[in-house]
Amino acid sequence: MAITIGSKLESDYANPLGMLSDCHRRIERFLQVLLTVTQKVRGRELSEEYRTAFTTALRYFHDGAPKHTRDEEESLFPRLRQSSDARGQQVVMRLDELHQDHAVADAGHQTVEALGSRWLADGCLRCEDGQALTEVLELLHTLYQRHIAIEDAEIFPLAGRILKPDEIHALAHEMAARRGLRLDAQMLPSSQTTNR
Question: Could you tell me if 55 and 120 are in contact, meaning their C-beta atoms sit under 8 angstroms apart?
Answer without folding.
Answer: yes
